[in-house]
């Protein structure tokens, strides 16, 4: 419930902040390219459309063949996928959403190895925790006295609630300055 509320508020803020607003009506489930969203090959409006649709559409996850499951982490909304997701050269049937984007939950790799493979620089790297990021794009636009900063970053991390797993995915953020 907390994560859904956070996703709704983030999606609402992003919608409000976008110069070309995305809406839930803009999202076409048949056109979803989940690997592109996870691997940061999509743009912010595409992610916004999915986030708004996912939080606002009745049984949206079910329509995608996803089943919501408890992540054990109040900051992650977790789904089991009907079909495997191929991302970063690996396959998984588990996807989580942070407040800013989707992440594949991967087995069979070390966070340091995956980060090196995809060019993600570690910010924290020790036996208990890995957290790394690579900025894919940053853009600042000013219109009518409002400055909007858009940032897309590729992230690799480990979390206590998912022992032995690596979370890898994209963060789509916008900030009004």
Overall description:
The protein is of the alpha+beta class and 177 residues long. It has one domain. It contains five helices and eight strands; from the N terminus they run ααααββββαββββ. It has an eight-stranded antiparallel sheet with strand order 1-2-3-4-8-7-6-5. A hairpin with an 8-residue loop joins strand 7 and strand 8. Helix 1 crosses helix 3. It is globular, with a radius of gyration of 16 Å.
The topology string of helices and strands comes to HHHHEEEEHEEEE
Measured distance between first and last alpha carbons: 29 Å
Total domain units: 1
Helix-strand category = alpha+beta
Average pLDDT score: 87
Count of DSSP-assigned helices: 5
Report helical residue fraction.
25-40%
Note the topology.
Elements: H1 2-17, H2 34-38, H3 44-56, H4 60-63, E1 66-69, E2 77-87, E3 90-97, E4 102-106, H5 111-118, E5 121-125, E6 130-143, E7 146-157, E8 166-176
Antiparallel strand pairs: 1-2, 2-3, 3-4, 4-8, 5-6, 6-7, 7-8
Helix pairs in contact: 1-3
Task: Please outline what is shown here.
The chain is 26% helix and 40% strand.
Name its key features:
40% strand, disordered N terminus, globular, 177 residues, alpha+beta, eight-stranded antiparallel β-sheet, single chain, 8 strands, 5 helices
């Amino acid at each position: 419930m907390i994560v859904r509320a956070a996703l709704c508020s983030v999606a609402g803020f992003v919608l409000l902040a976008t110069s070309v607003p995305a809406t839930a009506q803009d999202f076409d489930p048949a056109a979803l390219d989940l690997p592109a969203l996870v691997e940061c090959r999509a743009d912010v409006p595409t992610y916004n459309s999915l986030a708004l649709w996912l939080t606002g559409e009745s049984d949206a996850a079910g329509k995608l063949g996803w089943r919501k499951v408890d992540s054990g982490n109040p900051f992650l909304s977790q789904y089991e996928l009907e079909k495997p997701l191929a991302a970063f050269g690996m396959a998984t049937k588990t996807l989580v959403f942070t407040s800013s984007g989707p992440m594949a939950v991967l087995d069979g790799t070390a966070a340091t190895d995956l980060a090196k493979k995809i060019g993600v620089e570690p910010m924290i790297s020790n036996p208990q925790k890995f957290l790394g990021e690579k900025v894919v794009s940053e853009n600042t636009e000013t219109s009518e006295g409002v400055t909007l900063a858009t940032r897309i970053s590729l992230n690799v991390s480990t979390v206590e609630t998912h022992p032995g797993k690596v979370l890898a995915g994209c963060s789509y953020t916008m900030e009004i300055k």
